[in-house]
Amino acid sequence: IRVPAVAATDKVPSSAQTPSQSDLMQLTCEYDAVSKTLGWKGNQSSCACVEGYFGVDCATYVISSSKQKSVGAAGGSVMYDESRSGVTIPQNALAESVIITLRVYKQSDLGDAFPKVDTGYTTVSDIVELLPHGQTFRSAVTISVGVRAGQSVDADRLGLFFWNDATSSWQELPRSTAVTSNSGAISVEGESHHFS
């Protein structure tokens, strides 16, 4: 799941993420040099870069800040403190231990390859990727994404969005809310039962 904090104004942004393994068996992702876009040739209408690659042609490789932790039935957190981003998994959300990976891609590292959002939205955080892709949980986990320092935002208009493979659209995490720390730093939190 790649999750940015987004300041919403009027509509959900469109983008694309990697389809399921079964979809990959039937499709190819091709770069159209004329339109300068990626597109699936087959049953899907869009595609995305593999882990660590960004840009319309997937040519920009970016090394992320990364953390991994084995989390089991006792629950736990995987957090990247610098950006106040990560996931908190409650007790009994997992039946067995799973290696949870958190990757944070900074806007300054991505430059022009930083994912774009539609008109009416502004990305106000780094990109947070949670793995393994497709991981499900028995109870909701809390995903936190820190708003970039110095970003002027209206906390009432912040939300977290993830790419929904089933609907091929961005979807807001339920009950996304802004949280302000004692130091004034803002994070956006939402709940999910899966990593898309």
Could you characterize the architecture of this molecule?
- The protein is mainly β and 196 residues long.
- Helices cover 5% and strands 45% of the residues.
- It is built from 2 helices and 17 strands.
- The relative contact order is 0.23.
- The radius of gyration is 17 Å and the shape is globular.
- The strands form 5 sheets. It has a 5-stranded antiparallel sheet, with no helix packed on it. A 4-stranded antiparallel sheet has the order 1-12-10-7. A 4-stranded antiparallel sheet has the order 11-2-14-15, with no helix packed on it.
- Residues 8-27 have low confidence and may be disordered.
- Strand 16 and strand 17 form a beta hairpin.
Task: List the main descriptive attributes of the protein structure presented here.
mainly beta; globular; 196 residues
